[in-house]
Specification:
The protein has 292 residues and is α/β, with parallel strands linked by helices. It has one domain (3-286): TIM Barrel. The protein is built from eleven helices and ten strands. The radius of gyration is 18 Å and the shape is globular. The relative contact order is 0.14.
């Protein structure tokens, strides 16, 4: 395993296992198999509805808790101080742990400054080992970095061969924020698993296009969290530590950047933003209630 040292000294694996869209009744099995394969970073979120499955798999794994890095995220409906603070405690309970290694704000929506302050307090209390952001693009990232007491350790954004996010990466580097990719396989779009450039590079190393994509992103300093519900694919995705891409391969990888490739989840689309904010409005109208 390769690691990145976050801005507070905490070590985070460069390769993890994501459980986005993994059904709750499948999560325990999937995470158990991922841990058996060798993954030590597990990425979940309140909105995924499967924190309990992650916690159960970790508890039954027999692996010491301090060897597993758990990430979760605070959802839009909990974006103020009070709800965020309560949701952190509920995530701890569902995960069956006394600390979460990394907690992120899932979206730059609602009262995210208040929610971030709740994470800062939980961090100081030892409930969270590191805190950060998800889907905060440069203008919002700069806002938080300049105003927060605890600088975010991580920012997780859509990143894959067709949207490599070099500009956003440079801003993160400026503030010492680690870049983490969600959707490193572009959700399987654009023929990524048969892409000629990736396949051509892979032939040199005996690797698949998917393995080349992960290796290239990691060499650019990006943490990756591929998802699969199949153990053999989990193993293939993990098998990226025995080779390194040459400079000319990285230059070829850079040519895959495609400004015309549609965003997987468009945070600049008013309809998308309105849908997510609708959840926040409903939560406020209900006056709290169930956290998520």
């Amino acid at each position: 395993m390769e690691y990145i040292t976050l801005n507070n000294g905490v070590e985070m694996p460069m390769l993890g296992y994501g459980v986005f869209q993994t059904p709750p009744d499948e999560t325990e099995r999937c995470v158990s198999e991922a841990l058996e394969v060798g993954y030590r970073l597990i990425d979940t979120a309140q909105a995924y509805g499967n924190e309990e499955g992650v916690g159960a798999a970790v508890a039954k794994s027999g692996i010491p808790r301090d060897e597993i890095f758990i990430t979760s995220k605070i959802w839009v409906s909990n974006m103020n101080y009070e709800r965020a603070a309560a949701s952190i405690d509920e995530s701890l309970e569902k995960l069956g742990t006394d600390h979460i290694d990394l907690m992120l704000l899932h979206q730059a929506m609602g009262d995210y400054p208040g929610a971030y302050r709740a994470m800062e307090d939980a961090y100081k209390a030892g409930k969270l080992r590191a805190i950060g952001l998800s889907n905060f693009y440069p203008e919002r990232l700069v806002d938080v970095c300049n105003l927060a007491e605890v600088v975010p350790a991580v920012n997780q954004i859509e990143t894959h061969p067709f949207r490599q996010q070099d500009e956003a990466h440079a801003v993160m580097q400026q503030f010492g924020v680690a870049h983490e990719a969600w959707g490193p396989f572009a959700e399987g779009q654009n023929g990524i698993f048969t892409n000629e450039v990736l396949a051509g590079i892979g032939q040199k190393y005996g690797k698949t296009p998917a393995q080349v994509a992960l290796r290239a992103l990691m060499q650019k300093g990006v943490v990756v969290i591929p998802k699969s519900t199949h153990r053999d694919r989990m193993g293939q995705n993990f098998d990226v530590f025995d080779f390194a891409l040459a400079d000319e391969d990285m230059e070829q990888f850079a040519t895959l950047e495609d400004p015309a490739f549609p965003r997987i989840f468009d945070h600049f689309d008013s309809n998308v933003v309105g849908w997510m904010l609708g959840e926040l409005v409903k939560k406020q109208q209900l006056g709290g209630g169930t956290l998520y």
